[in-house]
Task: inverse folding
């Protein structure tokens, strides 16, 4: 997620920078034009005069009012706006990324496949992408702070809407239960046939109402995710442009840097919040009287996923309040006036004849500005905006460097989107860790190292002053190292343990045939799930009934209680066997695995800034703003929207045992671990290889262009040689006088 956030902030800052250079709807340019030629007195626009120089008495006016009333409001301070916007974007990205931290929990709670949960995560991008185009059209025509506040309120409502499925659903029952929770264990034991049939008939809850409620729950979550994306549309672009418009020129990069640094902590805080919330039981607000006999390591455990949305929505709501008090336009910082007077009096360079003649040319007559959508957009109607857009879009897409850089970033973003969505679930299944611990690892390792990678890439470009060829080389080397670090991940894992009646390891005895006929007298329900593990043979049974267990023992402890099943006819010695799945044999590899994943994320993030530089230095000057916007749109449409669905579909193909609810396929209970690892890491490897190939082509094209430029420079030009000789002859008398 970190590269995506960086690209959004970079895109918005580039757009505001070029919009300000273009001279439209910018208070700075309005003041510059009002100042007139060099040497004339600086004029301040009437609408800002009272705000800037309110303490001065005008001729014929009344006496100055009370100085306390002239004290500027805190809502007229751009520094306070930067603080508020940093907190708002932090909260907004925390609520946007929270679903990814609890994706496996939502799947278990509502019986969703990975493909469906991936589509649910992608719907956040659908709402955002559908409306983000209009941001470039409206620009500063609207009251930006109020629109940001309205967007934040919509995000708050969407976050609250995401919690509605929890409150309208029945309490979570982790096996085939009756309403009397203390008697739950009887449904999973080996019972006589008549008693089992009676229990099954009493627990049958499939009805049209149940299915309608399930569809309503899923529809509510998809609607909430769409509104979450729509509400986030005005927050980042309008906030950055507002800061850029009313801050001092030298302070604007500092403010945007502070905004960027605070915002980047949002995804990490989302995973941290998920780690805390998933330690709590899902029905913490309606716990049964007898309590529960589950631990967070039990595969049936469902954490309080909904509580994180409430906390995040509350944070967004609090951060949205100040935006309804900020003005539509605020005065520039006072330092701006002092700096501008000094610059106008001393620092302005003389205007050459060529520049003077070019400045007299009308912007409408300039051929380069006819297609400059970034400059003419504020003066166009919606119909004209739509007509001009395709022409500039096609011209930009014809640029080979731009197209290859966008494709490389689409590959990197696809890799990041899939990993951000399903890496917690992968760690849970592959290494038998809890959802809370998986989120903690991602929030403390992967996200911070990705941020470090972005910062390192920017520092290298700035300090070494890298040109296009060297930027391409840096991107290629980083992508290559990232690909090399991904190779060991294919081998860091272990095969699935044996599951009775489902999987059979080569050379091992099938679980149900250890004792033939051991469960003939049991009538085990087919849709029940209450796994137990025979640690001596490392065989897992779907329920105690499938292990032939006829009784249960609870060992009470001060911190937690442990459940054991005894009198198991399919287990050597009759048990006891503990409740829960068998632990993974390679759980000790989770930390080395995460270190390699985090280092790969850091190396992939190093390419972020250099690849942006390739776009800004490769396209025409008048198309830079639109090029960054097109790149941002393509990354959303081609990467962040389809990638979670692609990864979810690939994960579903590795399932070996599906749960069924009312005749429909629900959540996957067991995966083939080798297949899961190869396909999940294989998708990551595929996208990294695609990015590497794009960067290799970019470097080859840049070197060819550089070679052609050097060849042209070495060709002698007689006219140029005569000009050089004439200039040297003029310099000789000056040197002799010195």
Result:
């Amino acid at each position: 997620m970190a590269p995506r956030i960086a690209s959004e902030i970079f895109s918005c800052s580039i757009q505001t920078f070029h919009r300000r250079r273009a001279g439209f709807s910018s208070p700075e340019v309005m003041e510059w034009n009002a100042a007139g030629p060099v040497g004339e007195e600086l004029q301040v626009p009437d609408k800002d005069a009272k705000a800037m120089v309110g303490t001065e008495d005008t001729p014929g006016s009344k006496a100055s009012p009370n100085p306390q009333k002239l004290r500027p409001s805190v809502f007229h301070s751009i520094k306070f706006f930067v603080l508020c916007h940093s907190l708002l974007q932090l909260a907004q990205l925390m609520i946007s990324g929270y679903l990814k931290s609890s994706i496996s929990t939502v799947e278990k709670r509502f019986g969703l496949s990975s493909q469906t949960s991936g589509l649910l995560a992608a719907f956040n991008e659908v709402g955002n992408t559908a409306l983000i185009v209009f941001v470039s059209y409206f620009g500063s025509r609207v009251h930006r702070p109020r629109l940001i506040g309205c967007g934040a309120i919509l995000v708050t409502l969407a976050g609250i809407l995401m919690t509605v499925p929890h409150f309208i659903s029945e309490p979570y029952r982790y096996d085939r239960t009756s309403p009397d929770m203390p008697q739950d264990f009887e449904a999973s034991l080996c019972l006589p046939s008549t008693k089992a049939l009676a229990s099954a008939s009493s627990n049958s809850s499939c009805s049209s109402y149940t299915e309608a409620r399930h569809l309503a729950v899923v529809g509510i979550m998809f609607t909430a995710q769409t509104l979450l994306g729509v509400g986030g549309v005005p927050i980042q672009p309008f906030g950055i442009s507002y800061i850029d418009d009313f801050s001092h020129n030298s302070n604007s990069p500092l403010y945007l840097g502070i905004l960027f640094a605070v915002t980047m902590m949002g995804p990490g805080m989302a995973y941290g919040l998920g780690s805390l919330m998933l330690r709590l039981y899902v029905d913490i607000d309606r716990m049964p009287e007898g309590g529960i006999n589950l631990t967070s390591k039990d595969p049936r455990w469902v954490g309080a996923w909904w509580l994180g949305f409430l906390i995040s929505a509350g944070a967004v709501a609090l951060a949205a309040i100040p935006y309804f008090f900020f003005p539509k336009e605020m005065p520039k910082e006072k330092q701006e006036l002092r700096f501008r007077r000094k610059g106008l009096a001393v620092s302005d360079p003389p205007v050459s004849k060529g520049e003077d003649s070019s400045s007299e040319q009308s912007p409408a007559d300039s051929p380069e500005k006819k297609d400059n959508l970034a400059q003419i957009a504020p003066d166009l109607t919606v119909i004209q905006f739509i007509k001009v857009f395709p022409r500039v879009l096609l011209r930009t897409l014809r640029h080979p460097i731009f197209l290859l850089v966008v494709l490389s970033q689409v590959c990197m973003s696809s890799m990041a989107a899939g990993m951000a969505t399903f890496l917690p679930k992968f760690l849970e299944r592959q290494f038998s860790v809890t959802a809370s611990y998986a989120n903690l690892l991602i929030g403390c390792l992967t996200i911070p190292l990705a941020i470090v990678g972005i910062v390192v890439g920017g520092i290298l470009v700035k300090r070494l002053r890298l040109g296009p060829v060297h930027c391409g080389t840096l991107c290629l080397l980083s992508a290559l190292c990232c690909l090399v670090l991904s190779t060991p991940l294919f081998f860091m894992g272990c095969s699935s343990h044996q599951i009775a009646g489902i999987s059979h390891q080569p050379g091992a005895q099938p679980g149900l045939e250890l004792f033939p006929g051991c469960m003939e007298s049991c009538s085990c329900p087919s849709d029940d799930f209450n796994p137990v593990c025979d640690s001596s043979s490392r065989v897992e049974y779907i329920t105690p009934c499938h292990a032939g267990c006829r009784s249960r023992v609870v060992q009470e402890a001060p911190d937690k209680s442990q459940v054991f099943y005894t009198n198991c006819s399919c287990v050597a010695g009759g048990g006891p066997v503990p409740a829960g799945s068998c632990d993974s044999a390679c759980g000790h590899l989770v930390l080395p695995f995460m270190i390699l994943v985090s280092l790969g994320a850091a190396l992939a993030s190093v390419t972020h800034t250099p690849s942006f530089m390739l776009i800004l230095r490769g396209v025409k000057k008048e198309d830079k703003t639109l090029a960054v916007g097109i790149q941002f749109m393509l990354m959303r449409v081609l990467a962040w929207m389809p990638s979670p669905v692609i990864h979810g579909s690939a994960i579903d193909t590795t399932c070996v045992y599906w749960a069924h609810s009312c005749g429909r396929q629900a959540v996957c209970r067991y995966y083939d671990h080798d297949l899961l690892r190869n396909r999940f890491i294989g998708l990551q490897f595929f996208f990294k290889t695609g990015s590497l190939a794009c960067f290799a082509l970019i470097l080859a094209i840049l070197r060819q262009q550089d070679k052609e430029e050097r060849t042209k420079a070495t060709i002698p030009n007689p006219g140029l040689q005569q000009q050089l000789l004439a200039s040297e002859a003029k310099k000789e008398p000056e040197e002799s006088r010195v």
